[in-house]
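Structure ticket #2291
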Amino acid sequence: MRVAMVGAGYVGLVSGACFSDFGHRVVCVDTAPEKITALKDGRIPIYEPGLGALVAENVRQERLAFTTNLAEAVEGADAVFIAVGTPSRRGDGFADLTYVYQAARDIARAVTGPTVVVTKSTVPVGTGDEVERIVREERPEMAISVASNPEFLREGAAISDFKHPDRIVIGADEPQAAAVVSELYRPLYLNQAPILVTSRRTAELTKYAANAFLATKITFINEIADLCEQVGADVQEVARGIGLDNRIGRKFLHAGPGYGGSCFPKDTLALVKTAQDAGSPVRLVETVVAVNESRKRAMARKVVAACGGSVRGKRIAVLGLTFKPNTDDMREAPSLSIIAGLQDAGATVVAYDPEGMEQARLLLSEVAYAQDAYGCAEGAEALVLVTEWDAFRALDLARLRSVMASPVLVDLRNVYPPKDAERHGFTYTSIGR
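Resolution: structure written out below.
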């Protein structure tokens, strides 16, 4: 089948590359010429394990191409995906749908025959209705159907998630549209990936509901971690104890400094605003949003407490800047709030991240950057582990201790067993244990 992917960002590029790897002919289109030039030159603008090789192979096989010309991309396409950004709107927190609606107009004007327009971007309930109104208004004579196909990709594991999904959700109010999108995923038949066909509005809400539930699990275990610290329990053992219950499950029960990234913060906020507008507020999700925001800043206070109540004039080393490992994504990363809190308290911050420092430089000021973890720790009066990259899981604690000015280790991801850290002379602080 012929596919056009409007938007060559994270979702569009991963989805386009994976569809082409299934054997479909895919053209990714983007309005940013520098991005398309980079992709044509074989340079991937985001960090995602395995994506570079996947793109290169399918470009070589002539199944994947890139352009800034929308008309060229959509010509003869069976399906045109909208995969543009939906950031939180300034001022009110609603999802900004400007790019989605503009893409719908441009697609409608450019299509040359019957096609299905598929919203891949994460959008509030009812967005598909407006997209359909726009395309009908622009091209009333053209047979254009509108469907929803939300993505459920984890950064750092996106290719695996696309090719081995828990489920594929297709929202369509016309059987023909559902059939076209289902056919795109037919190569996953051998993987027995369940395809759930729903109404368009149901699909849109399913995405928000899924992210809100996962964010709630993270926030829940973080609050249990705080309680563990007060009563002398171990949050990791509590998490195992409840996670073995199949009704609860073990995933997303890892205590830490709060969730971040491109999805959970904006999607939970958008769901809150949508529910308020509908007169059916989601109080639980409202609380999740509030607790998560306050938790990030609280982690800076935790570091200050571990340093004896003051970090003024002290050199604090931060390991890990991205919101999670295996990505260069700094959006809403806990490190941003933590570093700001430490700087406000008078600390000098030096940081290291395997992939995120280039993006961090655009968002942080007056932060020094090291070449590796040991260089970061050199001369520091405290070492704060914020992101649990694999490279940080087996650091030489004796070497770290030898280069630090003071043996304070604040482990915000519970990577190290307390006894190991203490055996190497660290004053060790963790989360919920």
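Closing remark: The CA atoms of residues 218 and 252 lie 6 Å apart.
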